[in-house]
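Hello forum,

I keep getting stuck at the same step: I have a sequence, I want structure tokens, and every attempt I make locally crashes halfway through. Rather than fight my setup again tonight, could one of you with a working pipeline run this one for me? It's a single chain of 66 residues.
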Amino acid sequence: MLVLTRKTSEAIVISDNITITVLEVKGNRVKLGFTAPGDTTINRLEVYRKPDQCPSDGLYAGAALV
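Reply #2:
Ran it on my machine without issues. Output:
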């Protein structure tokens, strides 16, 4: 796993065509903005995986599927 530190308004680029920008940091929550080609699917982990496939460490326990 690559770990990066970014401040508000700073970004990272993945594969030359996906940009992730830190929009806001409030307490323990981070708001991210994604710029990607229209055919790129972006999901939260708890939506991407079925609830029974999430890590058992409780990190995603109780996450609402939207």
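The helical segments are 45-48. If your local run keeps crashing, start a new thread with the error log.
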